[in-house]
Amino acid sequence: MTDFNLLDPELVAIGEARTKAQLSRQAFESFQGVTQEQADRIVDAMGQAAEAAAAELARLAVDETGYGVYEHKILKNLYNAKFCAHAMKKMRTLGVLWTDEVARVTAIGAPMGVIAAIIPVTNPTSTTIFKCLAAVKAGNAIVCAPHPRAAKCCVRTVEIMAEAAERAGAPIGLLQCLSGGQLPATRELMAHRDTALVMATGGAAMVRAAYSSGKPTLAVGAGNVPVYIHRSVADVSEAALMVITSKSFDNGTACVAEQSVVLDEPIADAAIKAFEQHGTVFLDAEQQRRLTELLFIGRGALNPEAVGQTATELARRIGMTVPPGTKVLGAALDDVGPQTPLSAEILGPVLSFYRTRDLGAAHQRCREVLAFGGEGHTLGLHGQDAEMVARMSDLPASRIVVNTPSLLGGMGFSAGTDPSFMLGTGTWSGSIVSDNVTPMHLINIKRVAHQNRPWRDIYLPTMGL
What class of enzyme is it (predicted)? Predict the structure, then answer.
């Protein structure tokens, strides 16, 4: 008899990845031919199960990772289980998608196969819910590969949704999750012959590993989101409240939330006062130095022990006492780059602030912030001036959200972007997708194209034009 306790844990994890990829492929083959209506019924059951378990999964995520706010993680779970699932209902992903009678073309949606879904530690259960719903909506199987610090809560999330899917008619094994979160197992899964597509959400190293797997990859990485408050803003207090709400939500663990606030000089004093009234405590130079030492380790890498903590807790760790109700720590800065670490993305309730004399200076400052780790992600704007919006929209961001919290607008709740929990960052950051990812990105689209022009016209001088 083999003593499994003596086996190398890494080899066991790699074996698990191979086995689950193979089982998922078998389940996918059983699932092939499913109608849109059958897939929708299964997705509906999965969404309802995730909705019912939203609180349980939020508690597991907070307890296991030590990141974020329990109540906010419930909302993230519900956003995916209800809001995103509702948006998916309107999509047609399988069979005939549309027909162009004039061009004589019919588009047919076909699933891709087994999807390897990389799950981040900052939003583990909510991202798992979204990727499982999207995969099955598109007729695929899925194997989730969680961060090692979030493996248990992700396993439970997949377990709940898989049971609901199977009760609704899905084959056993259509949804699976690696149990340990080891990187070698994740690499094995991504490169496995039965994996058709990788959906990668995570840090830069994980995104690079995903693209190195040799498989088609939808990868989204970090953000460093600037928000500009222009002199034409309708209500500077409301703008400040939206930014603080966004950045403090789940203790700042969302990469789409604002990171740097760029203030137009005529409204800068009023904005600073509004930020203070809504719960921002500004740090002096010495406090900024201590916060930098807490948040960063090595060459600008975030300290994982300081991610996703409350502003009050961060203040305590640097020897500060802040008033009850403090939501965000603020740092007034005058440059951007590695020499000023607080200008980088911080997965916590910390905002940097800049004052700019005019639109040109604001444009330049936002460009600098995006170039420092945020290119391709998101830009926030507050103001009523259409020319300002047009001018700022030429910056390299995949979504420019106006007069709304960047978090809620970017993920498709309070603005017209597609509801999603996977936001593409485009080729600016090395990603093939700049959209908010939906089930439509998880299908192949075939075109049945009938002849609509005499083929001999190719020999005419005019080519029949």
Answer: oxidoreductase
